[in-house]
Amino acid sequence: MARRNVLLIVVDQWRADFIPELMRRKGKDPFLRTPNLDRLCREGVTFENHVTTAVPCGPARASLLTGLYLMNHRAVQNTVPLDARHFNLGKALRELGYDPALIGYTTTAPDPRTTSPNDPRFLVLGDLMDGFRSVGAFEPNMDGYFGWIEQQGFKLPPRREEIWLPEGEDAVPGATERPSRLPKEYSDSSFFTERALTYLKGRNGKPFFLHLGYYRPHPPFVAPAPYHAMYRPEDMPAPVRAKHWDDEAAQHPLLKFYIDTIAKGSFFEGAEGHGHTLSEAELRQMRATYCGLITEIDDCLGRVFAFLDETGQWDDTLVIFTSDHGEQLGDHHLLGKIGFYDESFRIPLVVKAPDIAGTRGQAESAFTESVDVMPTIIDWLGGEPPRACDGRSVLPLVRGERPANWRTELHYEYDFRDVHYSAAQTSAELHMDEASLCVVQDADYKYVHFAALPPLFFDLKADPDEFNNLAEDPAYSDLVRRFAQKMLSWRMIHADKTLTHYRSTPHGLERRDPQSGAAVRLRTVT
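^ Alkaline phosphatase family protein, sequence as received from the core. Prediction below:
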């Protein structure tokens, strides 16, 4: 097979309902301007029911790049190490003859058994996953980015993060219509784009794999000019939430913890107070800024796409666009990526496979998950996804062929054990191994199982915004039981299967094909 190119675009905190193509398909006004993403949707397949299988960033990216569910890779929270034994996309690409380049970050803490406790990587939220070659690092501590700004001649303040404060010394931190102090030429989105173009030009037409990561539309929610004023708050969709935050908090103790503790300062540089105090006007302004950051990324992608066009590489490149997770944006009186709501877990997935033309511009409604990205890339490059992989290649779906045994529900997990910036586990008086939940949902129902807290069950047809918990309603007891059984079966089927297809026999080691059961003799006893 001829060598091929792969461009994997991973943005941060971009939720699925802020994709214009999906807005159009749902009959909504596509108020966002994303001409380059629109082009990708026209030339590829847009997945309508795609989720990350874990949040926040570290667990989400571990699942994306290993193809493993949270219950198997066990990098369950930001700062929790990823076991070195796990195979990942970078290592798989090396087996296929690629030197996988990465721009951005993976938020991966190293296995402490492979290094010293004094390793500086344990001082930060996460570092780079083994197997990839960094050609534009953002972590640790964004030093590469801030150094680049200074090298461009822009003088940083003593506290470097203040570049994301609104323009003007008297600007009050918080939801604002003002631009950041940093010109767009020096934004992090511009930095990643410059690194991408530098790498691609350096390849000089040779085959490549590039993980192109972008930090946005992740907070702080302040956009550079002109993106800060590109969207009007009054044009933004209103937040989906109960009239008062107390009503939401009463639904479940985990929600109460987050509503009580989420700080504005995590989303607006220098702001004080709690997120649930944001008014609807402030939330609409925050969403307008969020959209501005999205359009800035789209403009940056346009530069990368244009280079691939000019050099004749676009038609030879598999392009996958996705995000690590979503963002609550004030829905349910929450900010960030937490819990079990769709706003945190539903994310974009667009796949343009240059050798598959029949389905271009179409949407696919099959249930897909972030663990499917790794096996899709390996499949397209002619490799074989590892036996342990929990995901499946979506290339049959891209071809317009839905396998008969494709999944019938979406699955995702969340671990809320204490980390240095959040103590949900302690608040709930749980052991760390009890602080977790998992979700199974289809088009009609959603079941949320907690290891040691009350469950939740929603009738999505009657209550699409998930305000009414029916877990204890006798009329739904059979459905609750059925979905709990679905979840148990899912966990049993996807328990670690790395070696379960091997057998010792009187004739030596054999390996059985997981699909057909046919045996392959690996060693003959003489």
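The first helix runs from residue 20 to 25.
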